[in-house]
Design a protein that fits this description.
- It contains two helices and four strands; from the N terminus they run ααββββ.
- The protein is mainly β and 133 residues long.
- β3 and β4 form a beta hairpin.
- The longest helix has 6 residues.
Length: 133
């Protein structure tokens, strides 16, 4: 490799001095589109709002998985749950209404928060450890 020194007096002495940085060329997008969003991509963020951090912060303690839940038959009936942090993993997809959330897919997690309910999108639990019965 043959390196050549830059000419004296060119450029800036510190990146902090650069108040309007520019790439100096075209941004390579590696064949991906950055000007539109597909319905599939929108599906990834369906139900996500700016209030998600508020919902997470409203959990008084750790999430405690209570078991599985059939969201079609609401079995067991979790609609009257009042304990913040209790959660169920959806075993059967369905449309039971928990705080206006009705799109439940297998693997989703229904979590009771201090202000209502939240849905954690499809997770796969490979093991559970710790705690005592």
């Amino acid at each position: 490799m043959n390196l050549k020194p830059l000419p004296q007096g060119s450029g800036i002495s510190s990146v902090v001095e650069d108040t309007s940085p520019q790439l100096g060329g075209n941004l390579a997008n590696n064949g991906n589109s950055i000007d539109s969003v597909t319905p599939t991509e929108l599906g990834y963020v369906h139900g996500v709002t700016s209030a998600i951090q508020t919902q997470i912060n409203s959990l008084a303690h750790a999430i405690t998985i209570q078991g599985t839940w059939d969201a079609d038959a609401n079995d067991p009936d979790i609609t009257t749950t009042t304990v913040t942090g209790q959660a169920w993993i959806v075993s059967t997809a369905g449309a039971t209404d928990l705080g206006s959330i009705t799109d439940w897919k297998v693997g989703d997690v229904a979590v009771k928060t201090g202000t209502g309910w939240m849905k954690l999108g499809s997770i796969i639990v490979t093991s559970i450890s710790g705690g005592s019965a």
